[in-house]
Structures are given as C-alpha cells and as structure tokens.
Amino acid sequence: MKIYRLAALETNYFWLLQPDAEHPDAYIFDPGDAAPVLAALKQYDLTLAGIVLTHHHGDHTDGVDGLLQQQPVPVYGPDSARIAQVTQPLYNGDTLNLGSSSWQVIATPGHTLDHLVYYCPEPEGILIAGDTLFAAGCGRMFEGTPEVFFASLLTLAQLPSNTQLYCSHEYTQDNLAFASAVEPHNTAIAERLESVRQLRQRGESSVPSTLATELATNPFLRCHQASVMASARAHSGQPLASTVEVFAALRGWKDNFRPN
User: Which of 65, 61, 14, 10 is nearest to 41 (CA)?
Assistant: First the structure.
C-alpha cells in the first residue's frame, strides 16, 4: 500500500491511496481541488478508481466535480444532503473495500454532524481523520456539541497506539504552541514543537503522526490529565467538574488562541 501526500490550497492535504503497488488503481480522499489530484495521477502513472469524502466542507469536496468530468468513478462518503455527488453512502460500522485494502467506517460527529473517518488495521494501522483529529489538535466545533465531539475523540483514542494519523491540514506547529500554553511543563510537547519547527523551516510536512504521539502531546486527548484540567480551570475561571467540560473549555480557548 502507498499513500501519497498532496499539499493543496493553503493548508490542506489530500491523501491519494494506491492499495496495491503492482496495480495502478488509486483512490483520493477529500479532494478540495481537482488540479493537484490530476497532476499526481499523471506523475505517478495511476488511474483514479474512486473518491472518498469525510465531510461536506468545500475544501474537502470542491474538486469532486472536476475529477468526475475526467473519470466517472464511485464517490464514497456520508449520507448527507450537502454532498450530492456521493453515490455510495457510508454509515458508522460499515466496511469500505478499496482495492485490496479494507477500511472501517467510523462516524465522528463534532466538527460537522456528517463527519466520517476511515481506519485500515492492516498491514499497519492507518487513520484518515479528516478534520476530526489533527496532529496536536482537533477541528473546530462547527455543528456538534462538546459531548458529541469529545465522544468522537475518545472513540479514536481507543485505536491501537501505533496507528498512523493522516489528517487534512498542516496545523501542527500552531496546535503545539497551544498545547504548550496548556501544559508548559510537558517535555514531550516542547520536544515535539521544536522538531516540528525544524521540519517546517525545511519545508517538510509534520503529518502523518502516530496515535501514541497524540496521546502524549495533544491536549484534546488529555482532558483527563490533572495538568490539563488545572490549566483549563485557571483559564476559564470555572470549576469544570467533568472531562467534557474541560474539552469544551479547551476548544473555546483554542478558538481564540494566537501563538506568539
């Protein structure tokens, strides 16, 4: 299996999956623009076999029509009135077979209510997370509630720790700056931030990550940690009795956070 990273728009990553290295069929996840996908298909001598969507936002779907004009293929994604191009609607618990690879469909409402992610356990754990879980962060809560979104994140936190996280945006450096504000004494965060700064200075990507790294450095997966709870309480000025309340306070804090 090969996964090609297509950097596009301002911060997006589209993920181009070639399930079998000996076969040219490929599947594109969340194409917000057709042009880079068509260029990559030509560069790697691949044939588009399908389109897979996580949610309805335009930076994840705006390239679908252009791709379908070039190659009519199945479009897999949420059963959502806001994504008219979906021909194969998917639901939580479904299995999506893409060539020789098999993906578990997991509903993760919160960023949007129609959000799905895709997990392939073999040969190694791979999670195409869209805008639900980012490297060192999570998506903005546009449609869900804190309870719903946090439950989605807890579901992903239960995946094997060696799972490779492929998210849809290069937000890691800013996310780690926020994580440092939440846990200023967390050495794993400080070390990761310095590593990512160096990567970005060289023009390299910080994605994929691993779930183990996220559990150690992502504040939205650490709402049960005493250091995170204390920081969220101090910033909000509220007692925050539950981890859901801590998550909600962190999400609101992050929405208005400006890294130095």
Answer: 14
- The full set of domains in the chain, from first to last, is 2-215 (3.60.15.10)
Is 111 known to be catalytic?
Answer: yes
* 23 tagged catalytic: no
In sequence order, the 6+-apart residues with CB closer than 8 A to the CB of 130 are 30, 54, 55, 60, 108, 111, 115, 116, 117, 139, 167, 168
Structure confidence by residue, pLDDT tens digits, 104-160: 999 999 999 999 999 999 878 999 999 999 999 999 999 989 999 999 999 999 999
Neighbours of 132 (CB within 10 A): 28
Measured between alpha carbons, how far is 253 from 205 in angstroms, rounded to an integer? Answer: 26
Residue 232 CA, distance from chain mean position = 24
Phi–psi pair at 14, nearest 5 degrees: -100, 140
Which one of 30, 111, 114, 115 is the catalytic residue? 111
Contact 219, 153 (CB under 8 A): no
Alpha-carbon gap, residue 61 to 189, rounded angstroms: 33
User: pLDDT (tens digit, 9 = 90+) per residue, 53-99?
Assistant: 999 999 999 999 999 999 999 999 999 999 999 999 999 999 999 99
pLDDT of residue 259: 78
**Which alpha helices (H) appear in 122-209, and where do they start and end?**
146-157, 172-182, 187-201
Q: Which of 33, 59, 114, 174 is catalytic?
A: 59
Assess whether 60 carries a catalytic annotation.
yes
C-alpha–C-alpha distance, residues 108 and 192, integer Å: 26
CA distance 16 to 38: 11
Report how far residue 214's alpha carbon sits from residue 192's, in angstroms, rounded to the nearest whole number: 10
